[in-house]
């Protein structure tokens, strides 16, 4: 495991590299959206158009991820009739809140958490761009909306600066923003847990399992990290000072599931992203495959076998969450 190496200014170099992954993800999404893989009218307010083109494998991978996570999310919203909350952990510049508002699918409250510097940046964009601030104002009722550089708390949307490895403080901040442990809750981590040690991610999973009576945890990230391709992925990131310290839990679909099962989650499913891609409606696949030419299928398939979608359920309120599937 990489220790907390600090530069001359005392900044944690490892955490800084992790924070920079937020920009990589946003640029890849913005590029795929600009080519027409899926629609997102809000991404342009958070990230400029990337200068270089991205490989079609990457955009197809993002498409499968957005569709896969979206299908699970919509099934959860349907089961709970939106009488629920969503907590997006390591949300980066995600635009889900705004898209759900447009679709009239807002949960009772939508929370986002990320490192304070990422949150400050997102709040700056929200404050300065009416297409982002207006939906928050429109969905707000009652008391004064709380906003400063490090957090924003409105009736339906809250964004909190914090560290997912510091659970007591995280819990305190969430409770201050009126997180309700009795409401069915959807937790999401997309490419986040692998940047935390397996010990830290397991504590997070255990904490969530103990906090909520009915919950679904959607985790999207790397898998099969022990094989040659996985090792190359790890080395590539290491060369950019970014250590995948949680790679242990990403050895296989079984290790992905294990950390939920040992901490009391009742049902856990995991699929590699090639399976998720192949489960998409044939018309969707036909449409996106016509967008950009892909030379060879094999590198794409290999890449997709190194990412997975895992969803875990606990359902003390018997809402039928175990039926949620792709
Ligand atoms: C690869 S980005 C993904 C962002 C977003 N989930 C998405 O898919 O677009 C990983 C995000 O997790 C955040 N993150 C990683 N470790 C974190 C921690 N310990 N506490 C808070 N945020 C963290 C990073 O700052 C970054 O925004």
Automatic annotation (TrEMBL):
UniProt similarity note: Belongs to the methyltransferase superfamily. LCMT family.
GO MF annotation terms: protein C-terminal leucine carboxyl O-methyltransferase activity
PANTHER family: LEUCINE CARBOXYL METHYLTRANSFERASE (PTHR13600), LEUCINE CARBOXYL METHYLTRANSFERASE 1 (PTHR13600:SF33)
CC terms in the record's Gene Ontology section: cytosol
Residues involved in S-adenosyl-L-methionine binding: 65, 90, 163-164, 190
Catalytic class of the enzyme: transferase
UniProt cross-references to InterPro entries, sorted A to Z: LCMT1 (IPR016651), Ppm1/Ppm2/Tcmp (IPR007213), SAM-dependent_MTases_sf (IPR029063)
The protein's name: Leucine carboxyl methyltransferase 1
Keywords per UniProt: Methyltransferase, S-adenosyl-L-methionine, Transferase
Source species: Python bivittatus (Burmese python)
Catalytic activity, EC: 2.1.1.233
Function per UniProt: Methylates the carboxyl group of the C-terminal leucine residue of protein phosphatase 2A catalytic subunits to form alpha-leucine ester residues.
Reaction it catalyzes: [phosphatase 2A protein]-C-terminal L-leucine + S-adenosyl-L-methionine = [phosphatase 2A protein]-C-terminal L-leucine methyl ester + S-adenosyl-L-homocysteine
Listed GO biological process terms: methylation; regulation of signal transduction
Keyword Methyltransferase: yes
Taxonomic superkingdom: Eukaryota
The keyword Magnesium is annotated on this UniProt entry: no
């Amino acid at each position: 495991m990489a220790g907390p190496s600090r530069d001359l200014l005392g900044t944690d170099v490892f955490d800084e590299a992790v924070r920079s992954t937020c920009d990589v993800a946003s640029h890849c999404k913005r590029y795929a959206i600009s080519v027409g893989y899926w629609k997102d009218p809000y991404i342009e307010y958070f990230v400029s158009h990337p200068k270089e083109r991205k490989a079609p494998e990457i955009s197809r991978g993002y498409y499968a991820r957005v569709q896969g996570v979206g299908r699970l999310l919509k099934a959860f919203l349907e089961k709970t009739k939106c009488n629920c909350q969503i907590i997006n952990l390591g949300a980066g510049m995600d635009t889900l809140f705004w898209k759900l508002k447009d679709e009239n699918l807002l949960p009772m409250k939508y929370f986002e958490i990320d490192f304070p510097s990422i949150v400050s940046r997102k709040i700056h964009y929200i404050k300065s761009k009416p297409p982002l601030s207006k939906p928050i104002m429109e969905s707000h009722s009652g008391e004064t909306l709380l906003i400063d550089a490090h957090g924003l708390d409105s009736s339906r949307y809250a964004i909190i600066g914090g560290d997912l490895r510091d659970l007591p403080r995280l819990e305190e901040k969430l409770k201050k923003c009126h997180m309700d442990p009795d409401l069915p809750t959807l937790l999401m981590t997309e490419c986040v847990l692998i940047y935390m040690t397996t010990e830290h991610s397991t504590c997070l999973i255990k904490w969530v399992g103990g906090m909520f009576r009915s919950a679904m945890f959607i985790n999207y990230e790397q898998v099969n990290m022990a094989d040659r391709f996985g090792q190359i992925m790890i080395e590539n990131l290491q060369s950019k000072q970014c250590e995948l310290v949680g790679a242990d839990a990403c050895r296989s679909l079984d290790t992905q599931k294990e950390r939920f099962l040992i901490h009391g989650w009742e049902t856990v499913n995991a699929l590699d992203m090639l399976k998720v891609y192949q489960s998409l409606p044939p018309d969707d696949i036909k449409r996106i495959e016509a967008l950009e030419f892909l030379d060879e299928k094999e590198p794409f398939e290999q890449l997709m076998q190194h990412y997975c979608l895992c969803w875990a359920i606990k359902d003390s309120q018997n809402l039928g969450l175990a039926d949620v599937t792709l």
